[in-house]
Amino acid sequence: MVTKIQVEGNPAFARIPPWVQAKLRPIAIEKIQQVYDWIENECVPAERIYKAQLKEARWTTPAIVTELRKKAKAQGLFNLFLPNHFEESPGLTNLEYSCCAEIMGRVYWGAQTLNCHAPETGNIELLAKYCTPEQKKKWLHPLMNGDFSSAYSMTEPDRASSDATQVGIKMEITDKEVIINGRKLYGNCKYNDEMQIFILMGCSDPNNKNPWNRHTTLVVPANTPGLKQVRNLSIMGYDWAPEGHGEYIYENVRVPRENIILGPGRAFEIAQGRLGPGRIHHCMRLIGQAERAYELALVRCYEPRKKPRGKFIGEFDSNIERIAEMRMTIDAMRLVVLNAADTMDLQGNKAGRYAIAQSKIMVPNALLKVIDEAMQIYGGQGLTQHTPLPEIWTYARFVRVADGPDSAHRHQVGRDQMKTAQGFRERAEKYTARYKELCKKWNLEPEEFWGIV
Ligand SMILES: Cc1cc2nc3c(=O)[nH]c(=O)nc-3n(C[C@H](O)[C@H](O)[C@H](O)COP(=O)(O)OP(=O)(O)OC[C@H]3O[C@@H](n4cnc5c(N)ncnc54)[C@H](O)[C@@H]3O)c2cc1C
């Protein structure tokens, strides 16, 4: 395949670093251009239409999104996130998709119009990896086709869910069915009737000696009797309609045994497999959100009606420096995300573990500050519904917790790093031994260095 699209000087590629541009194949160049045109022409101008339609029917997908999804599917823009080693993939690598995802992130619901939103991306990847052909027909294909949507349900109110071995919702597995009892927190809201399946992790064998073999993952249809949504959880005051986040009670919920994915007691194999690209899709899109915040700040810097002491806001030195910091932070965070995506492509998800954690920890924390500074430049209006900044900030804040809190990732990185200490100690001892030889040669008395004698 060849492409006539010119990358140089093209705004769709302006923020993509040269080392990534050099790796883009023609198929990726075509898709990035299409996604850019899509978000710029179809989504950004429709932001207020979306809000107005949502006001009318809070738990119904706005008509504009439904229409755009149909159109996007017809243009071959669905499911771009699924990496090219899957037979169902549209063909992009993780690195190539990162460039698309950033652009999608410019509008909070942009990814949804392209079937690239959370938790669909992680769920589709999970189903593509672990389902039997019959299960794929029932759940994977309709999800990829956008016929219904899904939720991922692991977190519980009564357990420390960052340690998945503690997940406690009870699953009693019989010859024919699984009976589920307990509580769950999060997982999209079933007030929206497009949400039709939960991918649920629960405890099926609590007395198994191996804590990694106690859990099972299965699919629960949202309309199963006994499954009750208690309420929608607001996130920092926002209801995140029309998808929302539910709080659920399972009371003798029965699903056929065939709904188990991979097999009883194999939830951790699935959880391990879910630790790939889905973990950083939020980070990829957050870069796009931060770019929007940055652009809004620049727009405000030269707003002629806002001239404190007769100067444009952008003429104050403090804001010139602020803009510089914002620019450099976004660019640095993009490199972190792109590196994680490239590492997964080149060395696999397991080898990418450190780069994924680095992205999960650094990107939302750094971009929270960028969005906060954009609000500061905007002044009072920046904290109101006159701008999308409060929602963008809230999104960055929730990325610090969703898919595992950053402290847990930091803990893992730190523990892995501690394992390298002995190697450095041995190296330091070698330097000291050589130093002692040199002292002898040059007739000097050795001194203590680095606390090593
Ligand atoms: C907006 C949003 C959407 C979400 N969507 C979903 C969803 O779709 N499905 C789903 O199942 N869940 C979802 N979650 C839940 C999220 O995945 C969990 O909240 C998260 O995994 C942490 O679990 P927990 O709340 O039980 O916190 P805990 O496990 O109790 O952790 C609380 C705190 O303890 C500390 N801590 C925990 N582990 C460590 C460690 N190893 N080292 C150091 N400190 C540690 C940290 O300070 C951490 O923040 C969502 C959360 C948010 C905010």
Automatic annotation (TrEMBL):
All residue ranges annotated as the Acyl-CoA dehydrogenase/oxidase C-terminal domain in the record: 268-415
InterPro entries recorded: Acyl-CoA_dehydrogenase, Acyl-CoA_Oxase/DH_mid-dom_sf, AcylCo_DH-like_C, AcylCo_DH/oxidase_C, AcylCoA_DH/ox_N, AcylCoA_DH/ox_N_sf, AcylCoA_DH/oxidase_NM_dom_sf
Domain Acyl-CoA dehydrogenase/oxidase N-terminal, chain residue ranges per copy: 34-147
UniProt xrefs under Gene3D superfamilies: Acyl-CoA dehydrogenase/oxidase, N-terminal domain (1.10.540.10), Butyryl-CoA Dehydrogenase, subunit A, domain 2 (2.40.110.10), Butyryl-CoA Dehydrogenase, subunit A, domain 3 (1.20.140.10)
Coiled-coil positions: none
Record's keyword terms, sorted: FAD, Flavoprotein, Oxidoreductase
Pfam families: Acyl-CoA_dh_1, Acyl-CoA_dh_N
Cofactors, names only: FAD
Family statement: Belongs to the acyl-CoA dehydrogenase family.
Name this protein carries in UniProt: Acyl-CoA dehydrogenase family member 11
